[in-house]
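Feature request, filed as a ticket because there's no other form

It would be nice if the structure record came with a short human-readable summary line next to the tokens. Right now we just get the raw output. Example of a typical job, pasted below so the devs can see what we mean:
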Amino acid sequence: MYENAPSWVSEADVRAGLERIKNAPLDPKRGLFGPGSMYWEVNKHTVVYFLGAVQAVQLQLAHPWIATAVFEHSKVMTAPRKRAQLTYIYLWSLIYGDLDMVSKKSISLYKLHTHVEGTIGEDAGRHAKGSPYAANELNALLFVHVTAFYTRVKLYEALIRPLTDEERDRFCADAKLYAYCFGIPDSMHPSSWQEVEDYLESMQRSDALGRTEPGVTISRFMKKSIPWPLRRPLWTFLCITLPERTRELVELPQPTPANRRRHKMMSGFFRVLISILPKRFGYVPAYHEALRRLEGKREPDLITRTLNRLFLGIPKLVS
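Raw output as currently delivered:
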């Protein structure tokens, strides 16, 4: 499960994962998960989902392959909204779509990633300048996958409620199913929440991580994208609970007494916000659209169409 020599994921690997999904006891209309699943429970919360995404990116920017790939191939700095919309279209399709959509989007995402390759521009960690990187590499895919769900679980627990050990392990089982969509096999994936913690701790100690100019540049751009009145408290809230090594490699705020006070203030703000938001806005639109699909309704309602246009640039996604 831990960082090994580079291992390239092929389309056959992704299709093998999709075959595992096909053979699992799943309702094709429900998709990978559904109401009552831990994956839907954690990921449906709008505040948790989007704040967790920003935190996950900071963790990922400490990985030279990922930071360089995003800097050189993504529109994160030239067209950040379009880049975010494309990401959410793919990921929400996998989380909330039916199995036919899951299969099509998984192959489409794999093919999109085949064009994401290049060479590292500087020595960073174990990665020598000029060494190759590629998006469809197993260890990098695993790191992106685990950091993405880890930050959301931690935020869910901080802002909504603690999870039981059994719920965390159920979430891991859901995450393993989701990982098949990227060609990540069982043998590489954590099987319990303790294994998730162990994996991330080992990565923080590993020379697989390293400081890069692309990583620091993207992080600074993301910070500056936050409206000025909220910039310092929100960025502090998002960053000071991340691992110390990540904070150093990506040059993030440190947990000084003043920053801890800002974190406490913002935590209280988000708890209140989550408690008062109507569910139509407190849960991501793809969740509401998926519920309507399961009720036999073919089209999202007006509010969901409006929110889909805001978040995705399209009126419907998983109907």
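Something like this underneath would help us a lot:
The chain has one domain: 19-277.
The radius of gyration is 19 Å.
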